[in-house]
Amino acid sequence: xxxxxxxxxxxxxxxxxxxxxxxxxxxxxxxxxxxxxxxxxxxxxxxxxxxxxxxxxxxxxxxxxxxxxxxxxxxxxxxxxxxxxxxxxxxxxxxxxxx
Length: 99
What we know:
The protein is mainly β and 99 residues long. 0% of the residues lie in helices and 46% in strands.
């Protein structure tokens, strides 16, 4: 085990995925639902922020397809399960709702 630098935003009930030397940490809860996305570059151990998700989410599913991050479902701020899908376009650095 190695100790990593602390996340910029403390959270629980978040989602995470590792891809291409980057650890993505999405949404979660810090007393309220979060829409923040933090990324740890494992080569230099530096945290960066992606643009925030269009909505707050906890406990979402994540996938990477063609280097784009997909956020699927999760709980919204009312603790209802959502069925939407958001895609982060890594080239344009923007979010798009896909369903």
